[in-house]
TrEMBL record, chains A, B:
Keywords: DNA-binding. It comes from the Bacteria. The lineage of its organism: Bacteria, Bacillati, Actinomycetota, Actinomycetes, Glycomycetales. GO terms for molecular function: DNA-binding transcription factor activity; transcription cis-regulatory region binding. Residues 42-61 bind DNA. It holds the Pfam family TetR_N. This is TetR family transcriptional regulator. Residues 19-79 form the HTH tetR-type domain. PROSITE patterns: HTH_TETR_2. InterPro entries: Homeodomain-like_sf, HTH-type_TetR-like_transc_reg, HTH_TetR. The keyword Glycoprotein does not apply.
Length: 214, 214
DNA sequence: CAACTAAACGGACTTTACCCCGTTTATATT
DNA sequence: AATATAAACGGGGTAAAGTCCGTTTAGTTG
């Protein structure tokens, strides 16, 4: 009678065939991604090429966007490991300011490197960034806690900062030309702007930096 | 021989029937928008209810998102008039700082008021914000020019500021819960954050505020 | 007013994401 | 090993966006 206490939620163990098919689908989608672009990956073709039914594909990933989200999350797991236990300045060992700057820099690099996949992951499901923003917010909050700035509302400040990082990044992903300087065609230096923001925040000391929510 | 010098671009004059149908479609879509939500407006239903063919709908607006974009632009025209010649602090008459703050506040209000339509306008065409961002950037640049801060790179600063305004706003529209405080469920005060940013910029004086692109 | 032309129109057709549900299968239990 | 069952599977079906191209029509010119 050692039933799990929690009856809700999906089954804890993934069936062997389900796992095999999930990995197979991810592998095939990566193949197709290289051959043609993300926009030419259709679910029919994916299913056929993986030797599976369409129904299986959707049961696994819920939607077309879901597949690309899964692809992205695989990468994101690696990123998160680096953040939590990799070498400084991204990982532990550096000061909070350096780690904040490094976090933004690497996250921006990560998403711009995977621009096509990230865009496909948003398709028809613009709510996608929610979970990623939350990851960013939690990490920022942790670092702010360590920094011990004299800020009353750490939670609120973390939210502000994550919006300042993820917002322009989302805008850039949505339409890179929107953040392109008309004069020289150079893309805005998101990472530099982020670094500057963090440095000013830490320089300012215990007054009131980016205002927290009321 | 008074041919227009520019042979490119679409014909300058809209045919009478085309105009009639365009207005009719916009009216019908507004109706349907109230009855059911934006997500239940289908192009087939729209065409039928307007007594027109589907081809006509797409010829006019290019895509489903295009219709909602047109709807939004109609409102945006009114907004722009207020900006250019309305009463202060949004319109001329107030100082650059007040006008910048007012601009952000009203733009945020405008988009959150029309959240459903704005989301529909992004569907399948996340590049939508590009044109709006450009409007924001130009206006900010104009006000910065008047302010005569001691900034070397006004163009770059304007780009940074428009990203700081439009980025988080886009993020909020994409997934409001991403910018929601987990403790009290209150949405982040975008407008307050914007006001704070502008005030700090003007307080800082002629040193180096939000860094411009290299 | 008649001929002409470029634009607008209509609606069948195609494509593709996503749903449904009868069938199969992995896994736990005895 | 036999049984039970919850999960996974398959692929035909549906809905809705977007395309194509033959037909109609507004506006222009002589």
């Amino acid at each position: 009678m050692d039933r799990p206490v929690v009856p809700l939620g999906r089954p804890r163990t993934e069936r062997a065939d389900a796992k095999r098919n999930r990995l197979r689908l991810l592998a095939v989608v990566r193949e197709m991604l290289e051959e043609c672009g993300a926009e030419h990956v259709t679910m029919d073709a994916l299913a056929e090429r993986a030797g599976l039914g369409k129904g299986t594909v959707f049961r696994r990933f819920g939607s077309r966007a879901g597949i690309f989200k899964a692809l992205l999350e695989e990468e994101a797991r690696r990123f998160q490991e680096l953040v939590l236990s990799g070498p400084p300045p991204l990982g532990p060992g550096a000061g909070p300011a350096e780690r904040l700057i490094a976090y933004g820099r690497v996250r921006i690099g990560f998403l711009t490197d995977n621009l096509a996949v990230a865009r496909a992951a948003m398709d028809r499901d613009v709510a996608a960034p929610a979970v990623e923003v939350d990851m960013t917010r939690l990490h920022i909050r942790m670092l702010l806690g360590q920094a011990d700035l004299g800020v009353r509302d750490v939670e609120g400040l973390a939210l502000q900062l994550s919006a300042a990082l993820e917002g322009p990044l989302l805008l850039y992903m949505a339409s890179p030309q929107a953040l392109t300087d008309a004069r020289d065609g150079g893309a805005m230096r998101l990472a530099d702007a982020w670094q500057d923001l963090v440095e000013r925040l830490f320089r300012a000391g215990p007054e009131q930096p980016p205002r927290g929510p009321e």
